[in-house]
Structures are given as structure tokens and as C-alpha cells.
Amino acid sequence: MKKIIGIVDADLLDNGTRHPNLVCLKLAGWYRAQGDTVLLIDSWEDLLYHAKEYDHIFIAKVFDFTRIPEGVLDLHNVSYGGTGFPDSFIAFPPGGSNLPAETIERRGVIRTLPNVIEHHMPDYHLYDRYVEKEITRGIKPIKYKDYLDFSIGFATRGCFRHCKFCVNENSCGVRFHSHISEWLDPTRKMIYLWDDNILAYTHDPNHPDGNWRQVFEELAETGKRFQFRQGMDIRLMTDEKAKVLNEAHYYGDYIFAFDHPEERPSIEKGLDCWRRHNDKIPKLYVLVGWDSQDQNDIESAFMRITVLMKHRALPYIMRHELYKNSKYRGTYINLARWCNQPSFFKKKSYREYCLANGEHSSTVRYMREFEHDWPEIAKKYYDIRWDQFNP
Ligand code: SF4
């Protein structure tokens, strides 16, 4: 008997998001291929009032801060998973599991997707009605390009670094996940990948021929522009990787990460290597608010920003939720606004950017409060400008 399946992208219903949820796309792809009716549920009210009309409802979320109304997860026909649920490991094991698909139609948490779903072609049209509604109410279509223009997937999964703030903390290394053809929609113009650490993919005992080079070759064969959305690991940059990236049919910014101050030597080495082969300005995520939320963390952020300026690279401030507990919350906000808008960042020092917001603005107040408490840090970093190093 054909079923009616409801799918909820919880991040979309709570805060809104610009990316389709890949788990939702795969679930939709598999169930539609069985002939079932699959609907994206577009409000919590709809779910609560009409839950009984669905044979089963799946809820997925990426972010742990996404809220779900009370009682929803207890409904008899709801199961849920994704990196946003602490007890769900929907991303692991890397290849999915050998369980039959029906095993996930039980109430409660889903720990891993069955292989048949994990490796099924996503249904890229799941969000069509939602996108159409948004565009009809006047939102610009460009906002929905991730839903409309891209094929999405993983070539590899996992990472070997065990960073404590990351969903990959317990991952045992980079492993092959799928060939690009598994999730490529030839009608879509571009490709983006969610691989955790593509540049660390050198060896998988189960796929002896696989490595980062082979992934880039597969991507080149599609003839489409592509992008790795997670920050790539510039500490692993080599001359060969820099050359391949330079020649790739890449879409948008090359994004890497500079999360901790002690990484400075290997980051600088990676940036030097990049520069030998590539003239493009890379962007590096600068994680703040995680190591601590005090003046030391802010000094570390300024130091990393300055290192990047010196290497003709742009910072992108990524604030960990914990920054909200800081006495200097406002400084974190200022730093993000200054750095994350390259048009400001390339033209103004931190002090000039803050002053441009007006003498009576909160931006200036935050800047002065921190300078009052930590004049040495302010003296060292407030007046440094991009064009000092990049005339
Ligand atoms: S390097 Fe990146 S992907 Fe790997 S564990 Fe650290 S944050 Fe996660």
C-alpha cells in the first residue's frame, strides 16, 4: 500500500536556512521512488493539526540550537535525526547501514540512514513549492540558488583531526562516501559538496584507488562548476593540491579555516604554498568564542585576522554560540561585521570601521569599552589596515 510521508526541515521552520537539508532530499528521493506521496511540511501548526493524516513523518535538523515545539517528537508516527540531535548520528557510519529502509519508520531517533536511502538520488524538487511561495511573495530568486541550481552531496565523509567543537570529533578519518554520479542531476548547473576534509583524503582501505585527486577528476569530468562548502584544511596544502585547485572549475570563494592561534605556522605555510600557484584571494573561517570568551580570545582573533591580511587572505568570523556569554559580546559582533563584509574590510581599519557607524552608535561604544579595559591589545591591532600589506 502506498504511503503518505511528511518531511520536516526543522532548521527551516525555526530560524530559516538557505540550504536544503540533504537527509530530507534523500528520504524524499527514496520514498518517491517507491511510489509514495512525499510532502514537505511547511509549518509546525500543519504538522500538529494534520499529523494523523501521514503514515510517517521524518524530522531532520542540522543545528543543535534549532527549537522543536513540545510534544512533536513524541507523536506516534514521528522519527527524527541529523547532526542537530545529540543522540543521532545520522551522518555515521560514513556509508550508511545495512538495515532495511523500513527500520527508520519507528517512533524516535534515527541513528543512521539505511544504505538504500543514504545512497539514493536526492529528490531535488522537494522544496519546489516552498521556493515558489517565497518567490511569489517577493523574495529574490537568488536567495534560493542552493535549492534551484546545485546538485548536492558528499564524495567523502569524516576527518582525522578530532576537534572538540565539531560533529566529527569521534570520526576515525576520511573515508570514501560516494561517486559524484550517485547524486549528480545533469540538469542542474552546479555542484556543491559537504565533505568534511577533502584535502585529507589520501587512503581508504576499502577503496584503495580513491583519494582527493580522483575526486577532483570526477568533478572535472562533469564539466560543471563546483564548490566545497566546509572550510578546507589549508594546513594540508601541497604544491600539487594548490595547482589542482587553481585549475579547477571552481565556483565562488576558496574557503579554508584558521580556528586556533597555535595553528599559525602551518596556516602560514599553507598560505605560502597557495600563493605560489594561485593568485586568487582565499577566505578563511576564523572561529571565535570557543577557546574562551575573554580578551585572550579577542586578541587571538585580531592576531589571526592580521596574519591573514599579511598573506592577502580574507577572514570570515565564525562566532561560536558561547560568545553570547562574553562581557565583550559587542566586540565579537563588531569583528564579524567588519571582517565579513570585504568591501569594508579592505578599505578600513577596525577603528575606522567602528567610527564610520557614528559616534553614538553601539559599535563605537563596544570598541571604546574594550579599548578602555585592554589598551595594549587595542594599540596593537585597532589601526591595522588591509592596504598596508596589499597596496
Ligand atoms: S578539521 Fe574541520 S572537519 Fe576536521 S574535526 Fe576539525 S573542524 Fe571538524
Tell me the strand order in the biggest sheet: 2-1-3-4-5
Biggest sheet features:
5 strands, parallel
Helix fraction, binned, reads 25-40%
* Count, helices: 16
Going by CATH, what is the homologous superfamily of the largest domain?
Answer: tm_1862 like domain
Protein name: Radical SAM protein
Structural key phrases:
globular, binds iron/sulfur cluster, three-stranded parallel beta sheet, 16 helices, alpha/beta, 391 residues, 13% strand, pyruvate-formate lyase- activating enzyme
Describe the secondary-structure layout.
Layout lengths: L3 E6 H5 L7 H12 L3 E4 L3 H7 L5 E5 L17 E4 L26 E2 L5 H4 L9 H9 L8 H4 L1 E4 L2 E2 L17 E2 L13 E4 L18 H11 L2 E4 L10 H9 L7 E3 L6 H14 L5 E6 L6 H16 L3 E6 L9 H11 L2 H4 L4 H6 L6 H12 L1 H7 L4 H4 L2
The structure holds iron/sulfur cluster (SF4).
Describe the structure.
It comes from Mitsuokella jalaludinii. This is Radical SAM protein. The chain has 391 residues and is of the alpha/beta class. It has two domains: 4-118, Rossmann fold (3-Layer(aba) Sandwich), CATH 3.40.50; 136-342 and 369-381, pyruvate-formate lyase- activating enzyme. It is built from 16 helices and 13 strands. It has helices at residues 10-14, 22-33, 44-50, 115-118, 128-136, 145-148, 212-222, 239-247, 264-277, 295-310, 329-339, 342-345, 350-355, 362-373, 375-381, 386-389, and strands at residues 4-9, 37-40, 56-60, 78-81, 108-109, 150-153, 156-157, 175-176, 190-193, 225-228, 255-257, 283-288, 314-319. It has a five-stranded parallel β-sheet with strand order 2-1-3-4-5. It has a three-stranded parallel β-sheet with strand order 6-9-10. Helix 8 (239-247) packs across helix 9 (264-277) and helix 11 crosses helix 14. The protein is globular and about 70 Å long. The N and C termini lie far apart (69 Å). The mean pLDDT is 93. The structure holds iron/sulfur cluster (SF4). Iron/sulfur cluster binds next to loops.
